[in-house]
Structures
1.
Amino acid sequence: MKKVKEIVCIVIVTLITLSSCTTEAIGPVLMLKKIVEVSVDGSSSNTNLNYNGNKIVNIDKVDVLLEFYYTGDLITKIVEFNKLASHKNTLEYSYSDGKLTKIISSDGYVINYIHNNDGTISYEKRTKEAANLEVKIYHGVLSFQNGNLIKDDQILDNTGNGILSKKEISLGYDNTQNPLNNIVGFSKLLNYQQAISLNNSVVYVESSTVQLINDDQIISSIKRIDSKYQYNSNGYPTEIVSEKIIFGDTDSKHLKSQLFYN
């Protein structure tokens, strides 16, 4: 009996030690609070992120204010205010078993998502035009690996007769924490592309092909963006040298992003 008690005590101590080691290995959960986007001419702009606990309340950029609304732990509405154009667009997010299935925009478009058995996600964007006719703008397939979006194959559908237009995006990642992944529900927002991934994107390659079917003429182009990171002692990025803007597009005049945490 005494020997059994000794074994139980050893097991308990071992579990506590392993639990302590695991917590230390994970480190503190940091929330991204501010981004400073710096251009090659030295000018800069700030983006502020505000939270209620680990839930995002808003993202305040120079030109756009994004307001986030939750149902439980799922983001079910985002209101986009364009400060320059004084325009508001409301995005309603629908889920099934915790997986995003549809986005409905007040600007008149819908994005549908289908979660396939092989782990890929098919999607299509439709919009309503004159006479309330529904038009498919594009469709594609998202591929994931280890929690990261690694590929986006897209076909443009509204290009006119005799034209086949394709776009393929491939991405590579580091092995450190993407700070946006700490935001409750954010990783389910498939329209935010690589920003929802578990790690940080270091390589972005976009290949575009336009084929004129009648004469077999093919026009292709390729663009590659490499991002270089600096990290803090907890493994979170503090500086990203890249043409890619966080929460924005690619800009050849963009020099780097500086990230600040709570």
Note: The mean pLDDT is 89.
2.
Amino acid sequence: MKLQRLLFILMLGFIFSCSNDDDTGEPLELRDPEEVRDENMLQIEGFLETHFYRFEDNPQNSNFQNIIFDTIAGDNANEEPVINSEFLKSKLVFQQDVEFKLYYLKFREGAESVRTPTFADSVLVTYRGFSLFNNQTFDGSPNPLWFDLTNNIRGFYEVMDEFKGSTSFQENPDGTISFDDNFGIGTVFIPSGIAYYSAPPSGSGIAAYEPIVFNIQLYRSIEADHDQDGVPSWMEDINEDRRLTNDDTDGDNIPDFADVNDDGDGTLTEDEIEIDAEGNLILPDSNGNDTPDYLDPTFPEDA
């Protein structure tokens, strides 16, 4: 199952359900996002306080060790809770004016010499997604897959820039790939408000408003330029909210990261930027109005 981006839109506090329990067609009222956020935080922190982790070999992929979480009880009563781990970190994420605390385990950052992906890039990962409540897997791959982060849920892509890939890889005689043992390894605990909220994927087994968990190993990343206009996609986040779908400079209903003419002036973006001899991107401002040419509908007409 491919990770899906949650379109977290509140429309007068209601959405319509195609399959209401009473089959009356009545609108389904969304819960208050801050209330859900607070509830999810209690659930996640409760999990971190009552569970520990261990690594197990993965017979499907020697690169991808299984990270197992288990309850601190019985024979495991003396295990250290995740909440006390030296690898546990957190960051703040803002979605629709709601502040979320995103917990993640950073077991290994990755190779120091390798680039850090942005929130808009493509990444090569192995992963497992599972329910916080019952450890039930709803998505995953023990073999490396490329993900376009712009198509992933917020909580997944917001943690990727905390990791790096490996330095190199080798192709094995059987056609499989082995990566140097210095790739990024981590786990992220995602509140529903930056996951699937009230609309989890059909058949996933995830309940509405349920927090989820991903184990992730990052092998490689590539800077994305979705519209091939010469401006990396992460730079087309004009309002700097780390979302690309709401940046539309010319108002043509095509987000800038997918628009080959960002300012709608009739001149392609690729013709309003420059690349120097070292491959660096230069954004000219020919008329000196503090707006780069590629975002300025008054240039070249008024230059």
Note: Confidence is low (pLDDT under 50) at residues 1-24.
